[in-house]
Write a structure and sequence with these properties.
Elements lengths: L7 H5 L3 H4 L38 E7 L9 E5 L2 E7 L5 E5 L13 E3 L2 E3 L6 E2 L5 E3 L15 E2 L1 E4 L2 E6 L25 E8 L2 H7 L4 H5 L11 E6 L2 E7 L5 E7 L3 E6 L3 E11 L2 E9 L8 H9 L4 H10 L13 H10 L5
Antiparallel strand pairs: 1-11, 2-3, 3-4, 4-9, 5-6, 6-7, 7-8, 10-11, 12-18, 13-14, 14-15, 15-16, 16-17, 17-18
Bound molecules: FE2/S2 (inorganic) cluster (FES) and fe (ii) ion.
Length: 346
């Protein structure tokens, strides 16, 4: 099921009880208040901004499971690389670097033949491990070097996940599955897709940055005492208990996949995939108890609309990465988050 494009009226009428400002007179930050557009900005020669951290090691969504049609080759840019995704003869998905080792053609223009991806330039074929299995116009032995880097892949809960490690090390953990997916009491997924200017780490940090909820999202309190950040190896959990009795639990399964549960309202599987150091792609699947489906679109808009995700966008777009931010006691979770996150870098 795909979301209809939100109208402004729908955004305004979104589920305000979840994310609406309790601050009288609050209006969300306007995009126009930050920076300038490329069209209007004079071309000053400024010193370069500090480089955001490199792409962390982790499981990331390369696409939704439904995006990869058997027989076709899907091109995706992620983790600063050009990649292709295809399904072999058994329907099992594979992820390879996009360029053919023979002479550099992009495999995205090819097709799947006998379960192997066939290069569009001279027809060499590569299996799911990236090994060349056929040079159709030559009887000579296939050169051992005719091999494409491949990535570990898991298809689960409606996503195709791939493992990225800067040095090619194998995955030390698996992403847990989500019981609501495919459960008869729960809806099909409502899908939200978006690309934005942000460093992956800064998006994750946002979830433990309680002070910004007041200034960016219009809350009238900072729920520091009622929010808890705990870690368990590559996993972390944020539990937020609001004074009105509502509570959220957000599990991060490494840097790229998270599960948000708002009891009785929604369960959201969120994947955030770094395209490069400064851009991320979001692919979120919202699930609803059957009784909540009538307001499903409004809930999605509550999370992703004016007072939710949209409010964060200009901050992420215009900020610089600060390696050692000046943190006060109430920012404590940010320090804990960074200590946890350090394990994903070499
Ligand atoms: S470049 Fe791919 S087969 Fe020649
Ligand atoms: Fe935020």
């Amino acid at each position: 099921m795909t979301l209809e494009k939100p109208t402004q009226a729908a955004l305004d009428e979104g589920l305000r009880t979840m994310v609406a400002p309790r601050n009288p007179g609050y209006t969300p930050p306007s995009d126009a208040a930050h920076g300038q557009t490329a069209a209007t900005a004079p071309q000053y020669q400024l010193r370069a901004h500090p480089e955001p951290p490199p792409v962390p090691n982790g499981w990331y969504a390369i696409c939704a499971a439904t995006d990869v049609v058997p027989g076709q080759v899907l091109s995706v840019i992620a983790v600063e690389r050009e990649l292709v995704v295809f399904r072999d003869g058994d329907g099992v998905p594979h992820v390879l670097d996009a360029h053919c080792p023979h002479n550099g053609a992009h495999l995205g223009g090819g097709e799947v033949v006998d379960g192997a991806v066939q290069c569009p330039y001279h027809g060499w074929r590569f299996d799911g491990s990236g090994t060349c299995v056929e040079v159709p116009y030559s009887d000579a032995r296939i050169p051992a070097k005719a091999c494409i880097p491949s990535y570990p892949v898991r298809e689960q809960d409606g996503f195709i996940l791939f493992w990225f490690h800067a040095n090619g090390a194998p995955p030390p953990y698996e992403v847990p599955t989500t019981e609501e997916v495919g459960h008869p009491d729960w809806s099909d997924p409502y899908e939200f897709r978006f690309e934005l200017v942000a460093a992956l780490q800064e998006m994750g940090e946002n979830n433990v940055d309680y002070a910004h909820l007041c200034y960016v999202h219009g809350r009238d309190f900072v729920p520091n005492e009622t929010s808890e950040f705990t870690t368990d190896g590559p996993f972390s959990t944020v539990v937020e208990s609001l004074p009105d009795g509502a509570s959220f639990k957000r599990h991060a399964w490494g840097p790229g996949v998270a599960l948000l549960r708002v009891p009785g309202v929604t369960t959201v599987l969120t994947t955030t995939t770094p395209i490069d150091r400064r851009h991320c792609r979001l692919l979120w699947h919202f699930y609803f108890p059957k009784a909540m489906e009538g307001i499903a679109n409004d809930i999605v808009l509550g999370f992703t609309g004016t007072y939710g995700l949209q409010a964060d966008l200009p901050i992420w777009r215009d900020k610089v990465y600060v390696e050692r931010p000046i943190l006060v006691k109430a920012d404590g979770n940010i320090a804990d988050f960074r200590r946890w996150y350090a394990q994903f870098y070499e």
